[in-house]
Design goal:
GO terms for molecular function: metal ion binding; UDP-2,3-diacylglucosamine hydrolase activity. This protein is an alpha/beta fold. The protein has a single domain, classed as Purple Acid Phosphatase, chain A, domain 2, CATH 3.60.21.10. Helices cover about 20% and strands about 25% of the residues. It contains five helices and twelve strands. A hairpin with a 2-residue loop joins strand 9 and strand 10 (about 195-200). Helix 1 (about 20-25) runs parallel beside helix 2 and helix 2 (about 45-60) runs parallel beside helix 3 (about 80-90). The model is unreliable at about 230-238 (pLDDT under 50).
Length: about 240
């Protein structure tokens, strides 16, 4: 299973054009595309999302595009939030808000579980897992702090974003201490494990606040893992 993850586009201050994104990815084959929130936070930016979604559709991921929302997306007023969701769905992105969908890969079911944003208190784990039957669980969410509350909710791999790798790390990302326990544990990017279960924190493609990065880099992540009827093994995240 080969997954492309994009996170934290923050289209007001994104680090890559849609054409550059296509050139970087056009020769790769993906089974699934995962978008883990924080697309934008201003109504006028919504049209800017369209060319990026068009690029993702041109990549023809075999099992489609799945998205969750982040805290900045929820800055939008309801009618504008609906416009954002409509734009995503119009371009064939399945937006999961505390819900799941099951796909089958060579006969093996994979549950794609979208947990809504934890930092804005919208995560409802019981609701997200309501229709999940035992199998391999891939969780998409924005704020990785949710992993600290998932003792009773199984996942095999979890994709998230939110921290931007600190964005400005000089000499350290002290400003992240207000962003939850993981940040205070200095878990702000890359691959980690919680109770033996792997989760990945993407550094994002855009910036918020100051349009600058120090000690962190914009990131496009490709995840590969093997599936069979008995086991799931993470091979790599690069």
């Amino acid at each position: 299973m080969k997954i492309l993850q994009l996170s934290d586009l923050h289209l007001e201050n994104i680090s890559i054009t849609s054409n550059q994104l296509y050139e970087d990815l056009k020769d790769k084959n993906f089974d699934l595309i995962a978008l883990t929130g924080d697309f934008l936070d201003r109504k006028r930016t919504i049209p800017k999302l369209v060319p990026y979604l068009q690029v993702l559709n041109r990549l023809n991921a075999k099992y489609g595009i799945y998205a969750v929302l982040g805290n900045h997306d929820y800055v939008l007023k309801q009618e504008n939030l609906n416009a954002l969701i409509h734009t995503l769905e119009k371009h064939h992105c399945k937006v999961l808000r505390n819900e799941s969908e099951t796909i089958h890969i060579n006969g093996h079911p994979l549950n794609i579980i979208g947990v809504d944003d934890f930092s804005t208190k919208r995560s409802e784990l019981e609701m997200a897992y309501k229709n999940v039957k035992p199998s391999t669980n891939l969780v998409l969410t924005h704020d990785p702090n949710i992993v600290l509350h998932m003792e009773n909710y199984h996942f095999d791999y979890l994709l998230s974003g939110h921290f931007h790798g600190g964005q400005i790390c000089y000499p350290k990302a002290y400003h992240l201490v207000k962003m939850g326990k993981l940040a205070r544990m200095k878990i702000i990017k890359g691959l980690h494990k919680q109770h033996g279960k792997p989760f990945y924190i993407n550094e994002g493609l855009g910036q918020t606040g100051l349009n600058i990065r120090v000690g962190s880099r914009p990131e496009i992540t490709i995840h590969e893992f093997a599936l069979n009827a008995l086991d799931q093994e993470l091979i790599k995240a690069n």
